[in-house]
Specification:
Strand order of the largest sheet: 3-2-1-4-5-6-7-8
Radius of gyration: 21 Å
CATH superfamily of the largest domain: NAD(P)-binding Rossmann-like Domain
Strand content: 5-15%
Order of helices and strands: EHEHEHEHEHEEHEHHHHHHH
Number of helices: 13
CATH architecture of the largest domain: 3-Layer(aba) Sandwich
Helix content: 40-55%
Mean pLDDT: 96
CATH topology of the largest domain: Rossmann fold
Structural class: alpha/beta
C-alpha cells in the first residue's frame, strides 16, 4: 500500500516510521522549512520513503491518508480540502486530531465527507498500540471498517468510539487525572514530583497491565467488582465530590513549570524519551502471549 502522511511533526514522523516498518510505501508532505531533512534524518535511509511539498501529489496515488496537521480547525479544513480534491474517492482520510470532532473536520471535505474520520493515536504511534477511530455524522461504515482493518494490519489496537466528544475517550480520561493533579499542586497538597511518583510507583504499574475496571474487579477478591462497589462505593462517591479543579492561572503555570524543571534537573530530554520508549517496549513484550 501507498500511505500518505500529511504533516511530519512528532506524530507524523512516528506514523511514517510505523508504516515503513510494516512494509508500506510512504509519501510524506509538510510545508515547514527543513521538514524533509528532519524526517529523513530521524527515519534514516529508505527506498520506500518519498517526500514532496505538493499536497495534491502526495495523496494522488495514496491508498490511505493519515493527516497530522496543527490542531486548529481552519488549518485542518485547508488540508482536508486539498486531500479531498486530489485523493481517490474511495480512500479513507484519517485525522490524528486529539480534540476535534470528525463531523466538524469533514466540513473541510465537501466532495467526500463520507471517507473522513478521526484516527487518533497515542504518542508515539509506532510504539503505543491504541488508535481511537471516531466516525462523524457523514462517515460511512465502509470507511470505518477499512480504517479498523488498516490499523490492525499495522499492529495497532483500534478502538471504535460510539459517540463524538471533544478529546474522544483516552484524552478525556487523562484530562480527569490532570485536573486533580493540577489541583493538588495548586492547593499545596503535593509537589509536581510527588504527583509523578504517586502514579509511576503506584497505580500506573497496574494500569499498564489491566484497565481501571479490571483492576477494580481484582481489588474485590472473590467478590470482585460487586464487592468493591458495595463496600467502597459510598467512599468513592465522597471522593468524587471532593475532587478539585484548577485553572491555568499564571501563578499555577509558573509553579508547574518550576516543579517540572526541579524534578527533571540534570536530565536530558533525549535520554528521558529513550527511557520512556524502552519501558513501553518492555511492557508490551511482557504482555505478549509468549512473553517476548
Amino acid at each position: 500500500m501507498m500511505i500518505a502522511v500529511v504533516g511530519t511533526g512528532v506524530i507524523g514522523e512516528s506514523w511514517a516510521r510505523l508504516f515503513l516498518a510494516h512494509g508500506h510505501d510512504v509519501t510524506a508532505t509538510d510545508p515547514a522549512p527543513g521538514a524533509e531533512e528532519r524526517l529523513r534524518a530521524s527515519l534514516g535511509p529508505s527506498e520506500r520513503l518519498r517526500f514532496t511539498d505538493d499536497l495534491a501529489a502526495a495523496v494522488a496515488d495514496a491508498d490511505f491518508v493519515q493527516e497530522n496537521g496543527p490542531e486548529r480547525l481552519e488549518v485542518k479544513h485547508e488540508l482536508l480540502a486539498g486531500v479531498d480534491a486530489a485523493a481517490r474517492p474511495d480512500v479513507v482520510v484519517a485525522s490524528s486530531s486529539s480534540m476535534l470532532r470528525p463531523t466538524d473536520l469533514a466540513r473541510g471535505a465537501p466532495a467526500h465527507p463520507e471517507r473522513v474520520l478521526v484516527g487518533h493515536p497515542f504518542n508515539p504511534p509506532h510504539l503505543v498500540p491504541l488508535v481511537e477511530v471516531v466516525p462523524g455524522e457523514a462517515t460511512s461504515e465502509a470507511a470505518v471498517d477499512a480504517a479498523m482493518a488498516f490499523y490492525r494490519a499495522v499492529g495497532r489496537t483500534p478502538l471504535r468510539l460510539r459517540a463524538e466528544l471533544p478529546g474522544h475517550l483516552a484524552n478525556r480520561l487523562q484530562a480527569a487525572l490532570w485536573r486533580e493533579a493540577y489541583s493538588l499542586v495548586a492547593r499545596g497538597v503535593a509537589t509536581v514530583a510527588d504527583v509523578d511518583t504517586a502514579i509511576t510507583e503506584g497505580p500506573g504499574l497496574r494500569w499498564a497491565a489491566l484497565g481501571p475496571f479490571a483492576n477494580q474487579h481484582l481489588s474485590g477478591g472473590p467478590g470482585g467488582i460487586a464487592h468493591v462497589l458495595e463496600h467502597l462505593g459510598p467512599g468513592t462517591e465522597a471522593l468524587w465530590a471532593d475532587l478539585g479543579t484548577a485553572s491555568h492561572t499564571p501563578e499555577l503555570v509558573a509553579r508547574i513549570v518550576a516543579g517540572v524543571d526541579e524534578a527533571l534537573a540534570g536530565s536530558d530530554s533525549a535520554d528521558l524519551l529513550a527511557r520512556r520508549d524502552a519501558v513501553i517496549a518492555a511492557v508490551l513484550a511482557a504482555r505478549a502471549p509468549d512473553g517476548a
